[in-house]
Every structure is written in structure tokens, then in C-alpha cells.
Amino acid sequence: MQQRLAPQIATGQVQLVSISFDPAYDDPAQLAAYQRRSGDRGKGWIAARPAQAADLPQLLATFGVKAVPDALGGYVHNAAISVVNPEGRVVAVLDWEAMQQAQDYVLQRVVQ
Questions:
Q1: What element of type H or E holds 67?
Q2: pTM as predicted
Q3: 110 DSSP 8-state letter
Q4: SS3 call for 66
Q5: pLDDT tens digits, residue range 4-48?
Q6: What is residue 92's DSSP assignment?
Q7: Which candidate, 37, 21, 16, 23, places its Cα nearest to that of 79?
Q8: Which are the contacts of 62, defined by CB distance < 8 A and separation ≥ 6?
């Protein structure tokens, strides 16, 4: 998405945010490593996590995420692309693999 929306990111119209729902594991170093592994281009993408575990339930509810612990120390969850408008409201939840659909949605409905 960072490459697909590079012009909109460069002009400040779009910001990409990846949110970890596992603050016990995903410390800042883990999040930075995730971005490197995923081809971060250095601008327009933030990887974040709740600062406090107590904030996690509200974050999960806001994005409609169900995170269920698995037997391997991780989580089974409904990974998705959430489109958040400039007012901070989730306006669409798209399939994790629907990159083209997410790009089209942002270009047609969010970027003006």
C-alpha cells in the first residue's frame, strides 16, 4: 500500500498505520523489524501498539478485531484493512488481501 499510494502519502493526504494487538510481544524493536521485513519505504507508514495493555480492549472494539490466543503463543485474528477517515472514524473494513480494492476505496472516497 505504501508504494501504491505513494503520491497521496507524499502530499499528506494518506497515512498508513499498522496496529499490533499484541503489546506484550510487539515492542518498538519488533514493530521496526516488521516494517523492514515488509519493505518499508521510510515515509507514510507507522507501526504502533497500545502504550498500555489496559487500552487494548477499546482498540480492538474500535477496529472490530477479534484476537484469540492460539496454542503457539500468538493470536488467531481477523486481519483486515480498516479505512479510517480524517475524522478518525472507521469507514470501511476490507479483506487483508484486497489491496487493489483498498487503494480504489481510498482514492475514490477518502482522498479529495
A1: strand 67-69
A2: 0.78
A3: I
A4: coil
A5: 899 999 998 999 998 888 888 889 999 999 999 998 988 899 998
A6: E
A7: 21
A8: 90
